[in-house]
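#struct-queue
[09:14] JT: dropping the first one here, sequence first, then the structure tokens:
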Amino acid sequence: MTKGAMLYEGKAKQVFETDRPGEVIVRFKDDATAFNAQKRGNVDLKGEMNNAITTLIFEYLNDKGIPTHFIKKLDEREQLVKKVSIIPLEMVVRNYSAGSMAQRLGVDEGIKSPVTIFDICYKRDDLGDPLINDHHAVFLGAATYGELDEMYDLTSDINDILIELFDRMNIILVDFKIELGKTADGQIVLADEISPDTCRLWDKDTMKKLDKDRFRRDLGEVTEAYVEIYERLKKVLNK
């Protein structure tokens, strides 16, 4: 396999073409951003940890029957994935109140929701990734109602699996966001990453934040938190 030209560079990753039809390489960077890239920085080992964590989680989800774009890990920072067309909607799952939802609703953080809360955000950096509803998504041509139903079902299944997995790690899965994409044959699959960059993860005993909020809120020990998640994940998966 030959690594080709860079096709895309985002805030946390780069995507490169390969000589294999329908396959690309994703490279994880140490760059860190928050508040729609208004805050920028660099976190030691972040790219390596997010690649390693995403690899273990995507392999686990694949084994549980969740369709993903993941093929294999290539090295410390790169993985081979199926080339997909990213659906321009972030699927956000909230099991507890935190972050923007707590601020928006004027409630304290850490309240367990009696229901799973699903939000969708329109992926437009220039608009601040606004919160939208299903009708907006259809109006924008981002998805059909049928595709949204499939996306919600897939996201719900992922949430159920991750809650159980993180519980075994003595971690509360507070909330997370995922991106979904379409393969060449139109299948909707999980893409992007699942990592402390995209999840809020709190230790069940101490409530210590072990995710990107340590960067967002200047809490320190950012690298240590990512390494902690990786080590706990390896332990419960016997890797």
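[09:21] JT: and here's the second one, same format:
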Amino acid sequence: MLLYPTYFSPIIQYVALAKAGTVTFEVEDNYQKQTYRTRCYVYSPNGKQLLNIPVKNANSKQKTKDVLIDHSFDWQKQHIKSIEAAYRSSPFFEFYEDEIRTVYDAKPTFLLDFNLSCHELMIDLLQLETTHTKTSTFEKTVVNGEDLRFLADAKSKKNYNLSTYTQVFDDKHGFIENLSILDLLCNEGTNALNYLENQQVTLL
């Protein structure tokens, strides 16, 4: 299974991960805009909210692994505030808050390193027994395994018909599917892995 490492990835990517023993992360690709590499969505009091990582002059001729995070302003503080506003009253936020903060405190230079640290944290918190490797060359066509790199496309409007679960503000805005894995973790806690493993969805 081939995936792009993304920013606190959408739930559908972790549905795929929960069904795979191993995953290969594509790290030799050229940078693309409007993907989950630099963005994730949380459920705010006002509905679906975008959190976007600022990057320095990234373009499609540049390798994603070389993209630099722009630390000229404290975007981490903004993101933490938004996550707190979204999930402070969720059942499990307090259990994971400190660990989530450590990711933002690290301030890595490269976008790829930050996204991999988000992934490693989620693997730990979800207790997901999945290992990953990284590509050494760009794989234009996947011969062995599933090519799920398209799951990083933030422009996709595909509805995966994920099972509903209780969200903090669903009484105001209804159920919003496929948000950041943070949404599932904070609302479902130790049941999150069971949720992921039991989704009956068609990815391709």
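[09:30] RK: nice, looked through the second one.
[09:31] RK: The mean pLDDT is 94.
[09:31] JT: good to know. The longest helix spans residues 111-126.
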